[in-house]
Write a structure and sequence with these properties.
single chain, 312 residues, mainly beta, seven-stranded antiparallel beta sheet, 1 helix, disordered N terminus
Length: 312
């Protein structure tokens, strides 16, 4: 009898340890680059290119309890300024499963071409995956290129050919929703379009997923590039005339997002999660929680019965 009791206590009966992990989707988005300001040349001026979108990297993880994740969400670039990178240092499956996800910010161009998108990486204890950025629209000092998104090159500008409204700034690259689609109520990560000079009457449009439109002289507010509106998106380039170079639009902030089935709380079947510098929302219809981190340093910690060592 004593031997049987010892086997049960030691776990020799073949029953594994209780695990409190849960599955989640983890997405890291770099901040968008600001649009380039237009440059006064004393003639028609030089239009500013659109800012590039931030990189987007994602992974599915098994969230480990009783360990704190370190998180940094990048801030969007103002005009003529690159977007900052975002990063999360998390644990997948057990305390040995360290995973670092880094998403670079989009660049703000300096030469009237569109800004490039950020680069990204996912590093584990056994491998590192790297992701190249995309390229902004071509350099053209009559019109400007659109910024690249996280999965598409920016568009080229179309020079004025003598016909009314024929010249346009390059369009920004389109963003792409990250699966699962429910994670993102808003689109993300598109570059802004370039601004244009007086003879070129149409500013380049921002990418369909949050990029700022390019400014052009005569539009509201007077040729300024417009700011981006979704996570990781680049700002629009500024217009220019023979008197003023107009500022580019600001890129939108980056973020780290966490999405999982269930709710946060201390009741039965809820997850005891503490956050700093983040907001969480729960959708009762789908029984899913979405967490977004604000620019700056944040933390995520899930607490379960202790002591508990997953995998032992």
């Amino acid at each position: 009898r004593n031997e049987n009791i010892i086997k049960v206590v030691r776990g020799d009966n073949g029953i594994g340890p209780v695990r409190y992990n849960f599955s989640a989707s983890l997405v890291t988005i770099g901040a968008g680059g600001g649009g380039q300001s237009g440059i006064d040349t004393g003639a028609n001026g030089i239009a500013g290119g659109g800012g590039g979108g931030g990189a987007v990297v994602s992974a599915s993880v098994s969230v480990v309890p009783n360990v704190t994740w370190g998180i940094l969400a990048g801030e969007g670039g103002t005009f003529d300024t690159d977007g900052a990178f975002s990063e999360v240092i998390a644990y997948d499956n057990d305390y040995n499963g360290l995973i670092t996800m880094r998403a670079g910010g989009g660049t703000s161009p300096t030469n009237s071409g569109g800004g490039n998108s950020g680069t990204g990486s996912v590093e584990t204890n056994t491998a590192t995956s790297s992701y190249a950025g995309f390229t902004g629209g071509a350099i053209d000092f009559g019109v400007a290129g659109g910024g690249a998104s996280h999965h598409e090159n920016g568009g080229d500008g179309v020079p004025f050919d003598g016909n009314p409204s024929s010249g346009t700034g390059g369009p920004g690259g389109d963003g792409q929703q990250t699966t699962p689609t429910a994670f993102w109520d808003d689109p993300l990560a598109a570059g802004g379009g370039g601004g244009v000079t007086p003879n070129n009457l149409i500013g380049g449009t921002g990418g369909n997923d949050g990029g700022g439109n390019g400014g052009f002289v005569g539009n509201d507010p007077g040729g300024n590039g417009l700011p981006a509106t979704s996570y990781g998106s680049g700002g629009g380039g500024g217009g220019a005339d023979g008197t003023n170079g107009r500022p580019g639009g600001a890129g939108f902030n980056g973020t780290v997002g966490i999405y999982f089935s269930g709710s946060i709380g201390t009741q039965h079947l809820q997850y005891d999660i503490a956050l700093t510098n983040a907001s969480a929302s729960y959708d009762a219809g789908t029984d899913h929680t979405t967490i977004f981190f604000q620019p700056g340093i944040g933390t995520f910690r899930y607490t379960a019965p202790f002591p508990y060592v997953p995998g032992n």
